Amino acid sequence: MEAAEEEIGAAVAEAYAEGYKAAMLRYAPEAELHKTLAADIQAELEAEQKKGRYFWPALGVSAGLSFAAGFLCSFVIAGR
Hints:
mainly alpha
């Protein structure tokens, strides 16, 4: 009985290995394609995030400088 169980276990392991190998051969190119696409999309996402990195700080600085320039101009004009 033990010999039959061992033989069944070996047959199951062999069938699993063959099925795994067949699946890898079938889906490996698609998996590689998806990995490549994911890497490309990640690179594009990082590039888009870097584009807008300085927008809000530049907006704040320009608004601050505009306010300061307007304040100084009104002070110079009203001070005369």
